[in-house]
Every structure is written in C-alpha cells, then in structure tokens.
Amino acid sequence: MECAIECPCATTGDCCADHSPGIGCEDASCKNCVCGIDVACCTDGEGWDADCVSEANNECAASCTCEDAGTCCEAHPDTVGCDDQVPSGAPKTDVCQTCVCGLDPSCCDPETGWDATCAQEAALDCHERCVGCGVSDCCDVRVGPGCSDDACESCVCGMDDFCCNQQTGVWDGSCVDIAFGSCGSTCQCEATPSCPGDCSGDGTVAINELISCVNIALGGDLSGCPACDVSGDGNVAINELIAAVGAAQSGCP
C-alpha cells in the first residue's frame, strides 16, 4: 500500500466519478494532479471519493477532462483548457492545449479560462498543432473546386455550390469572400486585413473603397469588401471606418 500512487494495483476508474474505495483513476495526468493536492485519493482508505472528483473538476481542471472544455478554436472563458478536434476514430490528445498554455498559462487558469486571446493564439502561434484553427487553403483562391477544411467547405458551398462543383467549379474570389464573411467563424480565416478598407488589395485605400465601407456599416453586404471589417466580427463599426480613413490619408501600414 505504501506505493499505491505509483503502482496501479487497486481498482481505478473514471477520474470524473466517485469510485471509492478504489484509488487513483485512469487518466495519469489527472490522477497525478489530484493526488498531488489530496494524497488520500491515491491511498488505501477513503479512495477516489466525491472530494477527489471535485478537485478534478476545479483545482485540476486543466489536467482532467471532466467538463466539456470546448473547441480550442473558440473562446469559452468559463472553462480552462480546450478539446482538440481530432479526426473521427483518432485518439484524443491535448497537443493544442499544451502549446497554447505553454505560451500563455492563463488559458489553463480557472481564474481566466480559455478566452478570445487563447483562441487567437491557437489559430496563429499554435496553428500547426491546433486542428482547424489555423488559416487553411480555404482562405485563398485555388485552382479547382473545394478546399481542405471540410467544415469550411460545407459552409461556403452551402451558400454557393459553384465553389464545389466538380465539373465546372473553382474556389475563386467569391468563395474566399464567403469564407472570410458569412462563414468566417467556421473557416477560421485570418480576418484582420493587412490594410483596413483596402478592398482591392493593391496596398492603397481609395475613395470608392471608403464608400464601400460606409455602405457595409449601414447594412450592406460584407462580402463586397471584407477588408472593412478589421475585427472580423462580421460588422463594420465606427472605429473601423476611422481606421480605413486613416489608411486612405496616411497609407497602408
């Protein structure tokens, strides 16, 4: 019994359920965290009881997947860490969470949770390890129909089936506009443009482009100029119009 923590001889079970008098639990990282706080959870006696479950859900939430932490690609500040969106049948991992929390420990801190900054870090700094969070080929014009992100492709082609037509379709500028605009939250394209209001992408902001931004702010279609939406929230606010005017006067950053 002296080495019960290290030796999995006693009955173990789900870290998120009371299975006393069994000690420890199946998830090693969760078990190590909880038993580091409350050694009784891994020693003969009370075993893994309701107190251990509570510790798994609270103090050790970053190590124990007891609650649905939400996708790594979206903000969910009420929970810590995230669930990697791995392909069906593949083992669940926490490589994205490990990367993001290694850069920004607050993302695995119960006081702050997985906020918008964490989701952005998943998409930018950890995109190679965060499935579906980074910029994909859906965000650029391609030769041929469709793109590599199934969810984005389905969203875009649900609005414009030409983008996925196997005989005649191509993933052209209009498909990319939908990926950035109406399907932005699904496609996870980098929404922040290099130059606010530069609809044509030529590195300058002309009067007609400022007018386009104003029209979008008044309720027009964002797909006409995604560059007006600096924040990527699907709307054009006053501060974004001011940013576009600044770019027209002083040049693009």
Main sheet summary? none
Query: Which structural class best describes the helix and strand composition?
Result: mainly alpha
Number of strands: 0
Shape: elongated
The level of helicity is 25-40%
SSE order, as H and E?
HHHHHHHHH
Q: Termini distance?
A: 66 Å
Structural domain tally: 4
Count of alpha/pi helices: 9
What does this structure look like?
The structure is a single chain. By secondary structure, this protein is mostly helical. It folds into four domains: 66 residues, no CATH class; 60 residues, no CATH class; 51 residues, no CATH class; 63 residues, Type 1 dockerin domain. 32% of the residues lie in helices and 0% in strands. It contains nine helices and no strands. Helix 5 crosses helix 6 and helix 8 runs antiparallel to helix 9. It is elongated. The protein starts with 27 loop residues before the first helix and ends with a helix. About 3% of the residues have low confidence.
Q: Which short descriptors sum up this protein?
A:
single chain, 253 residues, mainly alpha, 4 domains
